[in-house]
Specification:
The structure holds three protein chains of three kinds. Chain A is 41% helix and 13% strand. By secondary structure, chain A is of the alpha/beta class. Chain C is α/β, with parallel strands linked by helices. Chain C is built from 13 helices and nine strands. In chain C, α12 (263-270) packs antiparallel against α13 (272-283). The longest helix of chain C has 16 residues, at 37-52. Chain C starts with a strand and ends in a 5-residue tail after the last helix. The mean pLDDT of chain C is 92. Classes of the chains: A alpha/beta, B alpha/beta, C alpha/beta.
C-alpha cells in the first residue's frame, strides 16, 4: 500500500545521504549531501537517514557518529516544496483529516520514517557539526536532537516557523525558558556564538576550523569502550524520557490553522504561487524582528549582556579548549 | 573520618577523605549520612556546610569500585543510593546544603556537588563528570542545573569544567580565591540562616518537588540497578 | 494612538486603534505600582476580556512611571484574608488563605490566566519588578527590559520562597534559582541578562519603540496560529503553579522564632513605614 499517494523508496535517498566510518577511530559519519537545495530533506532522505542511523547503531566498530552537511547550509529542514503534495486530501474530500495531519508528525517522530526519534534516542553519541543555517525542523528535529553540538560562528539557527505554522518552541531545556521563548516567539535566528553562550552549542569556532574541531572532540569521546558509550547514552536517553521528552510527548499538529481572509495564507500561496511567494508574503506581514530593530536604530538581540559585542577575551575564552 | 560542629544556625561537616566515598566505602558513607540527618533533625540548624581540608576536594579515583559493595546489593543501596543512602540524604533534607569545594573534584565529590543546593568554589577548582566512575550517578540533577545540552556534553565529552565555566553555567554559585573560600562559605551560610526556619523548610520542600517533577526520584530509584547492570556489562 | 480605553481603576486596557495590539497598564504610581487585591481582581477581569477579544493578537503589559511593579501591596498582605470566610479571625482560617491565593495561583487565578492567554504577550520590565512582576515576566512570551531593572523578590528573605519555583528553575537553572531565593533576592538588568532571566535590554528612551516594533511584527502572525500555539502552553508548569499555591498557604503560617525578622509583627507594632525600613535594614545584614 502506498503512502501519500506515491510510492517512496528509502534507497532513493541514498544519493543525498552519505554514510562512512573510520573503524580505527570508532567514528561514523553521516553527511547531508544535497547542497544545491540547502540540504532540504525529502521523504526519501528522511527514510534513508533513519536506516543509516540504524545501521550505525548495530555496527560495533562505531562508538561516535558525526552528523554533518555539505555546502553552506546544515539543513533547511523539510523540503517545503514537497510538503504541499505530500499531505494529499483523501479522494472526494475538501480538506485533509486529522489522520493525514498527524501523519506528518508521526513520520518525523515515529513509525517507519521516524528519523527525529531515531536521532533523539540514538544509542551512541551523536555530534552535530553545524556548518551553516538550520531552521524549523532542521533546527529542532535534526540539530537539537544531537547530543553535542559544534556550531560554526557564522551559522544561523532557529525556529522561524511562527509565521507559517504557529509558534515554535525553542529548546528551553537547554537554553533556559526565557531564551527558549524568545527563539520560538520571535522566530529570530541565533548565531553560533549566541548558541554557545546560551548553552546549546558546546563549542563554537570559525567554519574553517569546524571539521577539525569536531573530529578532535569525537576522537576524545571514542576513546571510551563501546559498552561505556552504550551505558552512558542509555542513562541519558532515559533521563530525557523522565523529563518529558519521551515518545508520547513528541509531536503536535492534528489540525490545520486557518488564516482569516485578511491574513496571509502561507500554504495556499505556496500552492498557487510557489514557495518564494509564500515566504515573501509571510515575512512582509510579520517582518524579521532584528531587521525591524535595525531599521529603527534600536539595539538587537545579542549575546553577552545588554547589547554589547563580545570582547576579544571572551572570544578567546569561547575557543575550543586546547588539550 | 569526619568532624561535626554547629553554631549560629549553621552545621559544618568536615570530611577527612572524600576518596573513600568514590571507592564505595560503606562506613564512610554511613557516617556522613548520619551526620547530615543529625543536622537535619536539629531545629537550631538551618544550613549544612559540607567541606574537606584536603588540598583537592575529591581527586579522581580510577580503580573500579569495590566489587563486594556492588555484589552486596542491599548494603550498597542502604549506604549510597537508596532512599536512606548518602546521596539522597544530601538531596532531600529540609535544610539548605552548601558545598565548599577546592581543587580537583571528581567521582563522589562531583556527586556531592551536584546534589548540594549552593556551591562555593575556589578559582582553581575543576569538575569532572562522575558518570564514568560512578554509574549510578543521577542524570536529572545535572540537566536541571546546567541545561540538557551542557549536561550531556559535560558527561559524554568528559572534559573537566573549570571553576569559571562552572560559574558561567550556573553550576557553581560563587568562585573565590582559595584564601577566601572558608570566609565566603561562612558568609553565604550565615546569610541563608537569616531566613526563618519554617521558610527554609517550606522552600526546600518546594525545590525538592521541582526536582521530583522532572524525574529525580525515579532516577534515584533505578540508579542502583543501573550500577549493577553496568558492572555486569564490563 | 490610544482611542479605546477601558479604565478599571488602576488597571487600564488600551486598544491601539488600527492594530491588533492592546496594552494592559498597571497604574498605582504613588506606591510604585504596588498591586492591591482590587487591582488583582481587575487584572483577572481584564485578562478574561482580552482573551475573548478576537480583534486583539498581542498584549503589552506595562507600568505607569519608573517601575513596572514593586510587588504586592505590603499594607494589605495577610489582612486581605479577611475578605474570605473565616479570614477575619485573629488567626485566619486556612480556607480563607487558600481562597485568596487561588486568586493568584489557582485554576482561574492570575498566573494560569496570564500564562495561557491566547494572545502573544510582551512585558516591559523596568525599574522595580518584584514578586508579581517577576512572574508576569517569566510567563510572558517576550520581555524587554531597561538598564534600571531590579528584578526578583526582596520578600523571599523573610517570607520564604513564594512563587512558581519550577518555572524559575527552568529559566535560570536549578542552582541559580536557589541562589536567587536563598541568597540574592534581586538582580540588576545586566545580571538578569547574564543568567538568562531576561533576553533583551534596551535604553529607556528606546523602550516604547522597541516594544511597539516587536508588537507590530508579532501581530502579523495569523490569529489561528497564535491561539493554537498559546492554547495549552504553560500547561507544563501546572505543577509549578499548584506548588506555588500550596506553598503560599504554608508560608502564611510561618511560626517566627527568636531572632527571625517578623514583618507582620513589625507592621502591627510600629506601622507599615517602620516595618518596611526594618525589612530593608534586615536585608542589609543588620540584626532584627
Amino acid at each position: 500500500m502506498s503512502r501519500f499517494s506515491k510510492r517512496f523508496h528509502a534507497q532513493d535517498g541514498a544519493e543525498y545521504i552519505l554514510v562512512d566510518k573510520d573503524p580505527a577511530a570508532g567514528i561514523g559519519t553521516i553527511t547531508l549531501a544535497r547542497p544545491e537545495k540547502l540540504n532540504a530533506l525529502t521523504v526519501e532522505m528522511r527514510e534513508y537517514l533513519n536506516e543509516s542511523l540504524w545501521r550505525l547503531e548495530v555496527d560495533d566498530d562505531v562508538r561516535v557518529v558525526i552528523l554533518k552537511a555539505q555546502g553552506r547550509a546544515f539543513t533547511a529542514g523539510h523540503d517545503l516544496a514537497e510538503e504541499r503534495t505530500w499531505n494529499k486530501r483523501p479522494p472526494g474530500k475538501k480538506r485533509i483529516g486529522m489522520t493525514e495531519n498527524t501523519m506528518y508528525f508521526q513520520d518525523i517522530l515515529g513509525g517507519k520514517v521516524g528519523y527525529a526519534s531515531s536521532l533523539r534516542h540514538f544509542s551512541k553519541v551523536l555530534i552535530g557539526q553545524v556548518n551553516g543555517f538550520a531552521f524549523g525542523g532542521g533546527f529542532s528535529m535534526v540539530a537539537c536532537a544531537c547530543d553535542i553540538l559544534v556550531i560554526a560562528e557564522e551559522a544561523s539557527v532557529g525556529s522561524p516557523q511562527v509565521r507559517f505554522t504557529g509558534l515554535g518552541s525553542g529548546p528551553w531545556q537547554s537554553v533556559g525558558y526565557r531564551a527558549g521563548k524568545w527563539i520560538g516567539s520571535s522566530g529570530e535566528p541565533m548565531t553560533g556564538a549566541l548558541a554557545h553562550e546560551l548553552g546549546l552549542a558546546y563549542v563554537t569556532c570559525p567554519r574553517t576550523q569546524l571539521e577539525e574541531t569536531t573530529l578532535q572532540l569525537a576522537a576524545e569521546i571514542a576513546q571510551r569502550t563501546l559498552n561505556d558509550v552504550l551505558f552512558l547514552k542509555a542513562r541519558f536517553n532515559a533521563a530525557e524520557a523522565l523529563m518529558g521528552r519521551g515518545r508520547s510527548g513528541e509531536g503536535g499538529g492534528g489540525f490545520t490553522q486557518r488564516p482569516d481572509e485578511d491574513e496571509p495564507n502561507f500554504w495556499r500561496t505556496v500552492g498557487e504561487q510557489g514557495l518564494k511567494a509564500g515566504l515573501d508574503k509571510a515575512y512582509s506581514a510579520a517582518p524579521r524582528v532584528n531587521k525591524v530593530l535595525a531599521n529603527s536604530e534600536l539595539p538587537q538581540f545579542q549575546a553577552g549582556g545588554a547589547g554589547r559585542e563580545h570582547t576579544a577575551e571572551e572570544r578567546m575564552r569561547d575557543r575550543p579548549r586546547d588539550r | 573520618m569526619l568532624d561535626y560542629s554547629a553554631d549560629g544556625g549553621v552545621a559544618q561537616i568536615t570530611i577527612a577523605d572524600v576518596r573513600l566515598l568514590s571507592k564505595h566505602d560503606i562506613v564512610a558513607a554511613k557516617d556522613l549520612r548520619d551526620a547530615i540527618w543529625e543536622a537535619n533533625d536539629d531545629n537550631d540548624v538551618k544550613v549544612i556546610v559540607l567541606r574537606s581540608d584536603a588540598h583537592d576536594f575529591s581527586p579522581r579515583v580510577t580503580a573500579k569500585p569495590d566489587d563486594n559493595a556492588l555484589r552486596n546489593f542491599t548494603a550498597f543501596q542502604d549506604a549510597y543510593y537508596g532512599p536512606h543512602g548518602l546521596y539522597q540524604s544530601v538531596c532531600y533534607p529540609k535544610k539548605v546544603v552548601v558545598l565548599e569545594v577546592q581543587g580537583e573534584c571528581a567521582g563522589a565529590g562531583t556527586l556531592l556537588m551536584l546534589y548540594s543546593d549552593i556551591v562555593v568554589a575556589s578559582s582553581d577548582s575543576t569538575f569532572r563528570t562522575p558518570a564514568d566512575d560512578l554509574p549510578a550517578s543521577n542524570t536529572i540533577f545535572p540537566i536541571l542545573i546546567m541545561g540538557l545540552h551542557r549536561a550531556k556534553a559535560w558527561n559524554l565529552a568528559g572534559r573537566p569544567l573549570s571553576a569559571q565555566d562552572a560559574e558561567a553555567w550556573g553550576v557553581v554559585n560563587y568562585v573565590v580565591e582559595r584564601e577566601g573560600l572558608r570566609a565566603k562559605t561562612a558568609e553565604c551560610a550565615a546569610k541563608i540562616a537569616r531566613m526563618p526556619l519554617d521558610a527554609i523548610t517550606s522552600t526546600k520542600m518546594g525545590f525538592n518537588a521541582v526536582a521530583d517533577s522532572s524525574g529525580a526520584s525515579e532516577d534515584f530509584a533505578l540508579s542502583a540497578f543501573y550500577a549493577a547492570s553496568r558492572h555486569s556489562l564490563s | 494612538m490610544t482611542l479605546k480605553t477601558e479604565s478599571m481603576g488602576r488597571i487600564r486596557v488600551e486598544h491601539i486603534e488600527g492594530t491588533a495590539i492592546a496594552r494592559l497598564h498597571i497604574a498605582n504610581p504613588d506606591k510604585r505600582n504596588a498591586m492591591t487585591f482590587d487591582m488583582l481582581s481587575d487584572l483577572n477581569d481584564a485578562l478574561a476580556q482580552l482573551d475573548r477579544d478576537d480583534s486583539v493578537k498581542v498584549v503589552i503589559v506595562s507600568g505607569e512611571g519608573k517601575d513596572v511593579t514593586s510587588g504586592w501591596d505590603l499594607s494589605e498582605v495577610y489582612d486581605v484574608f479577611s475578605r474570605f470566610p473565616g479570614g477575619s479571625s485573629s488567626i485566619p482560617s486556612q480556607r480563607a488563605r487558600i481562597q485568596y491565593y487561588s486568586q493568584i495561583w489557582g485554576r482561574n487565578g492570575l498566573f494560569p490566566r496570564y500564562a495561557q492567554l491566547h494572545k502573544l504577550t510582551i512585558f516591559e520590565a523596568k525599574g522595580l519588578c518584584y514578586d508579581v512582576g517577576l512572574y508576569l515576566g517569566l510567563y510572558s512570551d517576550l520581555v524587554v527590559a531597561t538598564p534600571d531593572l531590579q528584578i526578583g523578590n526582596p520578600r523571599w528573605l523573610f517570607a520564604g520562597g513564594e512563587g512558581d519555583l519550577k518555572i524559575l528553575a527552568a529559566t535560570v537553572g536549578l542552582r541559580r534559582a536557589k541562589q536567587l531565593v536563598f541568597l540574592q533576592n534581586t538582580v540588576s538588568a545586566d545580571e538578569a541578562k547574564d543568567m538568562k532571566l531576561v533576553e533583551l535590554v534596551v535604553p529607556p528612551e528606546a523602550l516604547d519603540d522597541t516594544v511597539m516594533a516587536l508588537a507590530k511584527t508579532l501581530s502579523g502572525i495569523p490569529r489561528d496560529n497564535i491561539f493554537t500555539a498559546k492554547n495549552g502552553s504553560g500547561g507544563q508548569f501546572v505543577s509549578g503553579m499548584s506548588g506555588a499555591l500550596s506553598r503560599a498557604v504554608g508560608l502564611s503560617n510561618i511560626l517566627y522564632r527568636d531572632g527571625e525578622f517578623n514583618f507582620l509583627k513589625e507592621r502591627r507594632d510600629n506601622g507599615l513605614k517602620a516595618a518596611m525600613e526594618a525589612a530593608e535594614s534586615y536585608a542589609r545584614g543588620e540584626s532584627s
